[in-house]
Amino acid sequence: MRLLEHQSKNLLSNFGLVFTEPTPVESMGEVRAAVERVGLPAALKAQTPFGGRGNIGAVRFAETVDQAVTAAEVLLGMDVRGTTVEVISIEPKLNYEREFYVGITWDTVAKLPVALLSLAGGVDVESARSDQVARQPFDPWMGLAPYKGREMAAEVGLTGKILVGVGDTLAKLSQTFLTCDGITMEINPLVVTKDETLIGLDARVEIEDEAVYRQRERLEPLGELTMTAAGRPPTPLELEAQGIDATDHRGVAGRVVEFDGDLALLIGGGGASLTVFDAIKAHGGNPANYCEVGGNPTEEKVAAITSLLLSKPGVKGMAVIMNVVNNTRADVIARGVVMGVEDAGKKPAETISLFRVPGNWEAEAREIMEAAGVEVYGREVSLDAAARLAVERNRAHVA
Amino acid sequence: MLLDPKAGVLVQGITGREASRMVEDSLAYGSNIVAGVTPGKGGQRVHGIPVYDTVAAAVEEHRATISTVSVPPSAVLDAALESFDAGMLLCLIMTERVPQLDTSKLLVAARRAGCTVIGPNSLGLIRPEIAKLGTIGGRVDNVRRSFMPGRVAVLSRSGGMTSEIASYLTSRGVGQSIAIGVGGDAIIGSNFTELIELLEDDPATDAVVIYGEPGGAAEEQLAARLKQQPSRLRIVAFLSGKFVDDLEGVRFGHAGVIVEGGRGSVRGKVKALREAGVFIAETFEEILEGLSLAH
C-alpha cells in the first residue's frame, strides 16, 4: 500500500524524522488561506502515489499568492497515469546547498532490509555513480545502528555535522521501516540548509499489504488510504470480481485484471495463469481478462466469476485452463463453470472453447463437462497446446 | 540431500483443515510423520498422529529433524523459531501471506540454528517414490501420476507449476530426482542458486528445470553465479509472465510477482540466464529439447 507524500511525511515525523510541513488542500477555495499560512515562496505538489512528479509538471513553485492559485488550478484534477489528482500539498520552498537520497528497501537476494545513501538526490537517483552510493544490508531484528549509518556517510565522503546527521537519519529511518512493515521508505531529497541542518523535502512510503492488519493504529490517523500497490485504479468489473472472491474465504476465484480482447479466461493457479496468458497472446489470441483460480474455491464462486467474465461486452467465449491441480477439485470447477454459463444465458457447448483441468477429481469433471457438450482435455495436452486450441476455437464463436 | 526418508517429520498446525488433509495424503504416500503440534490441542490425534501443545514436548517423545509449518500468517514467525529451537534441520513453511519482515527475521534465526528453510508460500517437495513433504501433488493417485523417479530436478516458484512440469516430464518418460516448490514470495528460505549448489553435490541429479516468474532477482542471481562458476548440471529455464513486463507496479499471481522501475522483468531475466549458458524453453516441448542437449 502506497502512502501519498503528506501521509508519508506525517508517519515518518512520528519517529523523529524532520520534513518541510505539508499542508494538504483539496479545493480551490482553500488555496489562498493555505498559502498565507505557509508563506512565500511556496511549493505546490500533486499528491499521487507515483514517483517522477517533477518531470511531468506535477510540482510547481509560486513567488506570489496569484501564482500559487494559478498553479493549484493546474494541479487539482490533473491526470497522472490515469488517476485524478484530488489533493495537493502546499509547503514552504527552501533554499538549500546540497541534496541527498536516503532510503530503506528489501534485498531479496540477501533476504535482509538494506539501507541506501546517494549523493545524487532529487530526480537523478537511478543514474548515480557507484562511488556516490553506499549500500548496507542490516539485521531485521536490530535495525541499522547509527554508527553503521555514519560509516555509510563516510563512504560517500561526507564529514562533520552532516556525516553525523545523515547517519542518524538512516538509523531512524531503518527503525521506522521495521516498526511499520515497510516495503520502501525514501526521503528524497534530504537537503542541507544554509545553517547545516538536514530536512526532508519529499518522502515516499510503501507499507506491505500482508502486514496492514497489524499497522492499522499507525495508518488510520493518516486519513484515507488506497489499497492498490500502483498501476491504474480498478475497473468496475475488477471490483465486482473482488467482491465475488470476498463472499467466501475458501479458495480464490477472482484477482481479475481486465484487458481489451474477446476471449474470456478462467485460469489458474498463480503460475499457470501467467503461463496461459502468455501462450494465448503468443498464439495470436486476445484475452478479455487475466484471472486466478486456485486453493479449491466453492462452486458458487466459480459460477459467479464465470458469469461475470462472460458478461463483458465483446466477449465471444471462454477457455478454462488450469495446471495439474493439487488441492483444487476439478469437478467443483466443472460444476461452477456450467452453472455460470447458464446464469449468463448462454450454452456451454457454444461458449466454452475447451476445459483442461487435470488432477484431483478429473474423471468426475470430465463427465460433467462432456454431458454439457464441452471438449475436455487432460494433462497429455500441454498448457501451451490448450491455449492454441482455445484461440483457434474462439475465432469460430460469435459475441 | 534434502529430505531424508528416514527422518521423522513434525507437523506444526496439524489440526488445521489443509494440514490435516496433507497428513492423510502424505501418510498414504509413505511419509514418516511422527507427531503434530497445535498449541492448546495437545492430547488429540489427527489421522492417528499424536498432537502436542509445544514442539519441545513433541521432540521429547519422538525423534524428528524435519518440520512443516501451516499456521496462520501472524503465527508463522513464532512457529518457525520454535522449530529451530528444537533442532530441526529442514523446515517447510507452507503458509501464504507471511509478512516479509517476519520471513527475514526467521531466516536470520534459521541461519544461526543451521536449519534449511523452504518457503514460505511453498506447496512442498518430493523425491518420487522416496519421500514427500507438504501438499505437493495432492491425493496419492495424483502424486503417482505426476511424479516418477529419475535424474532431473524441478525447482519452481509456483506450486502448481511444479506438478505441471513434473507431470509433463513424467508423461514423456523423463523422471525426477526431486521437485521443489521453492515458494511464491519475494523473500524465501532457499532460492534457485542455493538449491542448485546443493544439487551439484547430488550424484542422483544430472539436470535441473527451473520455473521462473517476473519480480525479485532469483533468476538474475543464478545467472551471475553461473557466469562466475559454471555448473556441472544442465540447466533449462521456463519463464512465464512476459506480459507483466509492460504492466509496471501491478502484482500478479504470487506475492513476489511485480515489475517495478524496470527491475524484475522477464525480458531481463531471460537475457541474463541466456548469457550464463542456460537453455531457455519457450514452450514445454522445448524443455525436453533443452534437457536432451545434456546427453
Can you tell me about this structure?
- The complex is a heterodimer of chains A (399) and B (295).
- Chain A is an alpha+beta fold and 399 residues long.
- In chain A, strands 7, 8, 9, 10, 11 and 12 form a six-stranded antiparallel sheet that branches. In chain A, strands 1-6-2-3 form a four-stranded antiparallel sheet, with helices on one face.
- The model of chain A has no long low-confidence stretch (mean pLDDT 92).
- Chain A is 35% helix and 23% strand.
- In chain B, helix 3 packs parallel to helix 4 (100-113) and helix 8 runs parallel beside helix 9.
- Classes of the chains: A alpha+beta (399), B alpha/beta (295).
- Chains A and B meet through helix 8 and strand 15 of A and helix 4, helix 5 and helix 6 of B.
The number of distinct helices of chain B, counting runs of at least 4 residues, comes to 10
Strand content of chain A: 15-25%
Oligomer classification? heterodimer
Q: What percent of residues of chain A adopt helix (DSSP H or I)? A: 25-40%
Please give the share of residues in helix of chain B.
25-40%
Helix segment tally of chain A: 13
Q: Radius of gyration of chain B over alpha carbons?
A: 19 Å
Mean pLDDT of chain A: 92
What is the 3D form of chain A?
elongated
Number of strands of chain A: 17
**Structural class by secondary-structure content of chain B:** alpha/beta
Q: Mind summarizing the main beta sheet of chain B?
A: 7 strands, mixed
Low-confidence stretches of chain A: none
The overall strand count of chain B is: 14
Give the helices and strands of chain B as they follow along the chain: EHEEEHEHEHEEEHEHEHEHEHEH
What Rg of chain A, in angstroms, do the CA atoms define? 26 Å
N- to C-terminal distance of chain A: 38 Å
Strand order of the largest sheet of chain B: 3-4-2-1-5-6-7
Unreliable runs of chain B, pLDDT <50, ≥5 residues? none
Share of β-strand residues of chain B = 15-25%
Q: What is the H-and-E element order of chain A? A: HEHEEHEEEEEEHHEEEHHEEHEHEHHEHH
